[in-house]
Write a structure and sequence with these properties.
Ribosomal Protein S5, domain 2; formyl-coa transferase, domain 3; 8-stranded mixed beta sheet; 5-stranded mixed beta sheet; 35% helix; 23% strand
């Protein structure tokens, strides 16, 4: 093939290439436009999106606006009001120049800009399609700027198909808006997604007030707050106590000179400072603000200005690590016992009632069975019985780790609800008896084999299969609460809650929206026993935050989360009846050998294996 000659690319193609650097997804558009609004001294910023921002992103502000000539120039590549010399590149105090943002966005969308400066009686409107040339026309409007971006990437189908689900793209927009609102408390932020208000923040007088508004007063009261002046850095922190940590990083925001940033260095310093105080796989919530001289940090590491590089990274790590470590190791960080939950008559009565209801439900489910040591799981299966277990009140998060061993199995086909299911069962299931070992393992003696069962992993498998079945068949049974529990969530978590409310209700919850960012829990799954309703619900919402909210994938993750959170834990003490019921239910599962996370539920020790070990 004949090599191509070097040539200058047309502006339309140059803008599309630039868009690939700056505009990754709808949230990128929101970030660029809102940052321009902030730099334009806006006091009120309104963001409206449809279909996660793919169909529409509209940002309206009451900033200083632009003249018609400035509006036209803003859509020209490399045009900016934020730098004027090379030196300015290394001491940027605004959110960074956006010389290519507007023309890049306009080149991959149906674009409209309406703006007015206070010096003009009329505003100007510019409409562009795929970056085509356009001239401003007079337009009546208030002082400020409104930009509409419709059908993002409609002319780049290859790029558009790589976007995630509407729920995921919406969540990204919420995260960007939340981050910018945490960085600029003097401005009010309002985000509307598909006609529903997701964020509505009034201008705040202080950072503390804005953090409180974003995370909710209840959580904010437990935050660790600190203010550390260590020349040349100034740190201000609002971070969660270890027990409020979450399983994803989206709720921890870092800022350098009020710019939301992603910094592996800062993240590593914070995580090291928490150290062993954080549960495994969990991350703190909150916001950490770092103020440093503009020339001590390079914000031009990436086109989106989301990453930064510090001149003295060793010193920065040292300061952040020690500031956070000193804060999280204060005596008042250790969680206390809520008087209202355990000390007051009302709290004790409510808790006792939940326990009694769970115990009654458990015994009612077992009365007809009259399980004896001579009955086997196969006999129970042939009679069509399943025996749901309940969990005790202990809520330890310890997870037992059992060594794997090969379990010989046979296949059995049984008829359930008119459908044939193939299930696997242990090879030998002679009459068995069950004893506990260390409130962690159950030992089932059956014929010439011993089965050692991890009670948490086993109960997880049982609940997981029942939860999956609830999406296709009858919903889980519910246990009504004495009083509804109001749960206040942050904006991102509330988005997850509203997206999953119908599916969670099929699991036995009864949850309804209650206010701007709250839900009310009226009932919880009966299978969850004496689990704390709010803790169970919050944990599940946290687990679902990083999941593509669609179909089977969502249901599996939801069932997995419920099973993990509601199952009996290592250390929970079971009655003899509960031990037998748990083993029976495990052998009725379609896959009784592993929990939903892939850990073994049981290991088998045969008589012949013992004889080998003893040299017989």
């Amino acid at each position: 093939m004949k090599p191509s000659r070097i040539r200058i690319l047309p502006d339309s193609l140059i803008n599309k290439i630039a868009a690939g650097e700056v505009v990754e997804r709808p949230a990128s558009v929101v970030k660029e436009l809102v940052e321009n609004s902030i730099d334009a001294q806006a006091k009120r910023i309104s963001i409206e999106i449809e279909m996660g921002g793919v169909r529409l992103v509209k940002v309206t502000d009451d900033g200083i606006g632009m003249t018609p000539d400035e509006a036209l120039i803003s859509l020209t590549r490399h045009a900016t009001s934020k730098i004027s010399s090379v030196d300015d590149l290394f001491a940027i105090s605004t959110l960074g120049f956006r010389g290519e943002a507007l023309p890049s966005i306009a080149s991959v969308s149906l674009f409209e800009l309406i703006t007015r400066s206070a010096d003009f009686a009329d505003g100007a409107r510019i409409r562009m399609e795929d970056g085509s040339d356009a001239l401003p026309v007079p337009h009546g409007c208030p002082v400020g700027t409104k930009i509409e971006v419709r059908e993002l990437f409609h002319n780049l189908p290859a790029r558009r198909k790589f976007l995630k689900s509407i729920t995921t793209e919406t969540r990204q927009v919420i995260a960007v808006t939340t981050a910018l609102s945490l960085a600029h408390e003097r401005a009010g932020f309002r985000l509307v997604s598909d006609g529903r208000v997701v964020i509505d923040l009034q201008p705040a007088d202080s950072l503390a007030q804005r953090v409180c508004d974003v995370y909710g007063e209840e959580l904010f009261r437990r935050f660790i707050t600190f203010n550390d002046q260590s020349d040349p850095l100034h740190l201000t922190g609002f971070l969660s106590i270890p027990s409020d940590a979450k399983r994803h990083r989206m709720e921890a925001y870092f800022f350098v000179n009020r710019r939301p940033v992603s910094s592996r260095l800062v993240h590593a310093a914070v995580m090291s400072a928490y150290g062993e105080l954080l549960p495994k796989g969990c991350y703190p919530q909150g916001a950490l603000y770092i103020d440093v001289a503009p020339d001590a940090v390079d914000v031009n590491v990436s086109p989106t200005k989301s990453e930064v590089r510090f001149k003295d990274e060793r010193a920065l790590y040292h300061v952040v690590y020690h500031a956070v470590q000193n804060a999280v190791r204060q005596p008042d960080v250790i969680p206390g016992i809520s008087i209202s939950d355990t000390g007051s008559p009302a709290g004790t009565e409510a808790r006792q009632s939940r326990l009694e209801s769970a115990v009654d439900a458990f015994h009612r489910s077992h009365v007809p069975l009259e399980v004896t040591a001579d009955q086997t799981a196969i006999e129970l299966a042939e009679k069509g019985h399943t025996t749901p277990t309940s969990r005790s009140d202990t809520t330890s998060d310890d997870v037992a780790n059992a060594e794997t061993d090969q379990v010989v199995s046979t296949r059995d086909t049984r008829q359930t609800n008119g459908a044939t299911h193939e299930s696997r069962r242990p090879y030998s299931l002679a009459p068995y008896r069950v004893v506990g070992f260390g409130d962690l393992y159950l030992i089932a003696f059956s014929g010439e084999a011993i089965y050692i069962v991890d009670q948490h992993a086993a109960h997880e498998r049982i609940l997981y299969e029942k939860a999956l079945a609830s999406f296709d068949q009858a919903a889980f049974a519910s246990q009504k609460l004495l009083f509804p529990i109001n749960v206040e969530l942050d904006a991102a978590s509330f988005q997850v809650a509203t997206s999953t409310i119908d599916d969670l209700n099929r699991l036995g919850f009864e949850v309804r929206p209650f206010g701007l960012r709250s839900v009310a829990i009226y009932a919880m799954p009966a299978a969850a026993g004496a689990s704390n309703p709010e803790r169970l619900y919050r944990s599940m919402i946290d687990d679902l935050a990083g999941v593509e909210m669609e179909g089977e994938n969502l249901h599996k993750k939801m069932a997995q989360s419920f099973a993990c959170r509601a199952a009996v834990m290592a250390g929970d003490r079971l009655t003899d009846e509960e031990k037998s019921a748990l083993v029976s239910d495990l052998f009725l599962c379609q896959n009784p050998y592993v929990c939903p996370h892939g850990r073994p539920t049981l290991i088998k020790l045969t008589k012949s294996e013992l004889e080998k070990r003893f040299g017989r």
